[in-house]
């Protein structure tokens, strides 16, 4: 089975920019035997230069805009405890409703947002969404009643839906399989960093800006969010590349565009196809959507407790100082970032994600088991909360697996990525309300037991994912003419093939015909 590719590099005539350079002889690359951090041994100078350009333009924009989004998402809580509650008379359940209205917009907007990304030029679509989002955020500073904030929070969530899934889709559109995990990890780490810094930013604004020009500090917080976002609009217009199969971007030469296509062909990555009635059959008739969305949802269940919030509630109940309550949970976030970056580099180097997934599963089972026991020493509780931070590393791991599995159908890949996050978030929302209500803090008797069950279920589901991905890879190897005696070894430790080689050992297509 093969999918059509309207523009193969071999069909592209020579251009005024010159021929495609830096191509080694076919099949000259071998499986890398030594560690590499960023680019594999044997990568040509031309390809390294191209990847550096992609990192500078695509990855930098994705990280900056995602940092700004997560900064605002946390700032609504910071604003609430910094004067907004008293100024607007929010003495009921208004904060929970503000979060709920945002999540409703965010969940419902993700699949439409990713579908639009496959139909509209990313260079204009993403900056337009960025601009609209910044305007809605700015209007928050003018709100004088909670109903205005409810409406704006829904709009902010709906427009922000063009952020997380679209940015991950962008990374999967321009990078090869062995480059995606670490870059998805960097993107996710940017959001975690925003969580860590949001409190510091709010504290600085409250100290230095409260009362300036007659505005309270919490209102200045939303103005600052707007000012941080404005440059992203112009950065996006300048650096987001045009559609690869239509024309080159100003910072990319024609030979580099051809090299981009050749790189993606090596991983069986196909361009955009048809958006018609067959799309639902392509999405729901293959295993990708069902297996990956279930995996992501189980991860989201596990992610609900323990978190930095449940840890802070325990610290507060145990009479730790206010600075400790705010600062000690940041170690959880720091461990998340470190393990996310380490596992991303390791997975891309080894061509396998299963070792990292096993470590994450073990860490979370141990963490949940300690917290279920509860009557343990304080160092044991700190250990349990901190190793639970590894769960966030599973976000980029699952998304990189989706990119690889759905490589041959861009529309399916876009919908599956958006479905993972929207459905996972929806499940996590009700799970958190049912099993982790604040009134049960700090013990969370049901929450940690439910989390232990979820972590065990996530661990049990991992072999299911491995089975389907391995079967697909073997099917692709069979189509590519790989001898049967070599298929098992290559399936157990997949390695992205040489860009210019004739062999394509990493399969990324569905079992059914498109």
From TrEMBL:
Family: Belongs to the major facilitator superfamily. Allantoate permease family.
A GO molecular-function annotation: transmembrane transporter activity
Membrane topology: Multi-pass membrane protein
Transmembrane segments: 97-117, 147-174, 186-208, 220-240, 287-305, 325-345, 357-376, 382-402, 414-431, 451-469
Predominant location: membrane
Pfam family, one: MFS_1
GO cellular component, one term: membrane
Entry protein name: MFS general substrate transporter
Annotated compartments: Membrane
Protein source organism: Trematosphaeria pertusa
Region listing for Disordered, in residue ranges: 1-33, 478-514
UniProt-listed InterPro entries: MFS, MFS_trans_sf
Keywords for the protein's UniProt record, in alphabetical order: Membrane, Transmembrane, Transmembrane helix, Transport
């Amino acid at each position: 089975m093969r999918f059509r590719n309207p523009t193969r590099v071999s069909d592209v005539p020579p251009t005024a920019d010159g021929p495609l350079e830096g191509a080694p002889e076919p099949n000259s690359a071998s499986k890398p035997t030594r560690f590499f951090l960023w680019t594999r041994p044997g990568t040509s100078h031309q390809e390294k230069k191209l990847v550096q350009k992609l990192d500078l333009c695509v990855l930098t924009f994705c990280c900056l805009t995602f940092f700004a989004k997560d900064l605002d998402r946390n700032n609504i809580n910071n604003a609430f405890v910094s004067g907004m509650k008293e100024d607007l008379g929010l003495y009921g359940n208004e904060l929970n409703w503000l979060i709920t209205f945002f999540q409703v917009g965010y969940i419902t907007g993700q699949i439409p947002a990713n579908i639009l990304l496959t139909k509209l030029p990313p260079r204009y679509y993403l900056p337009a969404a960025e601009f609209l989002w910044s305007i809605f955020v700015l209007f928050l500073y003018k709100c004088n009643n909670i109903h205005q904030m409810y409406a704006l929070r829904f709009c902010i969530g709906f427009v922000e839906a063009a952020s997380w899934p679209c940015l991950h889709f962008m990374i999967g559109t321009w990078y090869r399989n062995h480059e995606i995990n670490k870059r998805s990890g960097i993107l996710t780490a940017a959001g975690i960093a925003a969580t860590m810094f949001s409190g510091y930013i709010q504290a600085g604004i409250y100290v230095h800006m409260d009362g300036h020009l007659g505005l309270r500090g919490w209102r200045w917080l939303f103005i600052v969010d707007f000012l941080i976002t404005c440059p992203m609009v112009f950065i996006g217009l300048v650096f987001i590349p045009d559609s690869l199969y239509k024309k080159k971007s100003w910072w990319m030469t024609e030979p580099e565009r051809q090299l981009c296509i050749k790189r993606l062909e090596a991983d069986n990555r196909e361009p955009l196809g048809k958006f018609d009635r067959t799309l639902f059959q392509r999405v729901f008739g293959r295993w990708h959507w069902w297996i990956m969305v279930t995996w992501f949802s189980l991860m989201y269940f596990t992610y609900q407790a323990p978190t930095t919030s449940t840890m802070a509630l325990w610290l507060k109940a145990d009479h730790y100082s206010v600075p400790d309550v705010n600062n000690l949970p940041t170690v959880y976030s720091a461990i998340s970032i470190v393990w996310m970056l380490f596992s991303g580099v390791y997975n891309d180097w080894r061509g396998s994600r299963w070792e990292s997934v096993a470590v994450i599963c073990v860490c979370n089972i141990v963490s949940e088991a300690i917290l279920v026991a509860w009557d343990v020493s304080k160092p044991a509780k700190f250990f349990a909360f901190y190793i639970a931070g590894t769960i966030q590393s599973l976000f980029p791991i699952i998304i990189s697996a989706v990119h690889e599995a759905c490589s041959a159908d861009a529309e399916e890949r876009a919908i599956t990525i958006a479905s993972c996050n929207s459905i996972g978030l929806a499940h996590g929302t009700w799970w958190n309300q049912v099993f982790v209500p604040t009134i049960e803090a700090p013990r969370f008797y049901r929450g940690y037991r439910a989390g232990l069950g979820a972590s065990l279920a996530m661990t049990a589901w991992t072999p299911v994912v491995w089975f389907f991905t391995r079967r697909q890879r073997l099917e692709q190897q069979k189509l590519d003419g790989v001898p049967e005696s070599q298929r098992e070894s290559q399936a157990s430790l997949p390695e992205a093939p040489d860009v210019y080689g004739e062999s394509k050992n990493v399969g990324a297509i569905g079992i059914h015909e498109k």
